[in-house]
Amino acid sequence: MIDLAKRDIEHTLGKFLVTAMGVGMLLGIVLIMIGVYRGMMVDAEILLDDISADLWIVQEDTLGPFAESSRVYEDLKDIIYVMEGIETSEAMTFQNIQLPRPEKPVRVVAVGYDIRGLINPVNPKRLIEGRDIKNDHYEIVVTDKTGFKLDDKIKLGRNFYTVVGITHSTVSNGGDPLVYISLKDAQDLQFSYSNKEIQNNEARGVKNSETFVVNVIVARVKTGYDVNDVAKEIRKWQHKSVYTAAQQKMILTKNLIEKSAKQIGLFTAILIVVSTIIIALIIYTMTLEKMKEISIMKLMGLPNLLIISMIVKETLLLGVFAFIFGNIFSHLTYDKFPKRIVLEIPDAWALFGVVIIASILASFVGVKKVISADPSAAIGG
Hints:
Order of helices and strands: HHEEHEEEEEEEHHEEHEHHHHHH
Mean pLDDT: 85
Shape: elongated
């Protein structure tokens, strides 16, 4: 039996492919939107994985340094260290700063850490040039996204910092590049006052002690101890909020990314609906253009089922080709976006299933028109 769908597509091949490419771009955007969400999840976990701490000790009744402001004294790390079950503990700071560049300042998140401590947030696997920080002052490790090179001088506050190392693929949970400085430098940048402010505070009887403040104490638990039990003891005796690694990850993914994820999900759903409507309109238009031919086929005695199968097959082929073009489009453009886009095969297959279902639903518009076609219209011209 003659395959009507094949013959019809061959007759208008150029138009069919251009139409599939147009719909494919919409589907490609859907894949990219899903990739944005995946990228946000990856970004949120990079710093947590690099620090690899079991416990995060922060200011009481706060969610920690990534969700809201937290301040604790640096010497708390020594108190935590001697508690039962703790293997090591370190103090860290996190702050948003601007790295000055001639063209445009670069917004980054600076991680301050004890360069002689046992918990180092600079992952050696991500260090692509230079070295880790060795001196307590005026050295900085930047990510390659900042555009700085080894031995560049960067002015922060009143001092110049030398770039001694460059990392790759290190970003904060918000997608901003990460840079690393010593804890002493970080405290000076974040908590130190200007000379005039110090004079004013002393005149008011206020002692400037915030240079010994940090945002969080991170700790690792000894093998054989339950992390939750150790966290409970710290909350009981130190009156601080304590989160396990799993809880901290939940805070990042649930509290900070949840709204963005819902927004991305809504945009994705809208794009899929729009794609379905566009496919339906295209099939309807293609069916209208063939109404005379369809009337002739009905007059010749071809059953409706055969003509309907032509419409359904064309719709499914349009969806399949659009999906292929969408994948090509997304893979050619995803690395051009400023934030991380993660394209995963299961997401593509899930979208393929949605496209097939959407194509079948869209074909009903053309099928309805075929059923209502009047064979006598072929005679009337």
